[in-house]
Amino acid sequence: MPEPIRFHFDVDGENFTSAGEASVAVKKKLRQLGYSPDIIRKVSIAMYEGEINMVIHANGGKADVEVNDDEIVIILADTGPGIPNVELAMQEGYSTARDNIRALGFGAGMGLPNMKKYTDEMKIDTEVGVGTTITMKVYL
Amino acid sequence: MNLTELAARLGLETVAGDTEGREWHGVYAGDLLSRAMSHVKADNIWITIMSNTNVIAVASLTEAAAVVLAEGVELIPEAMDAALDNGITVLSSKHTVYELCAAIHETETRGA
Question: What range defines the domain where residue B104 resides?
Answer without folding.
Answer: 3-110
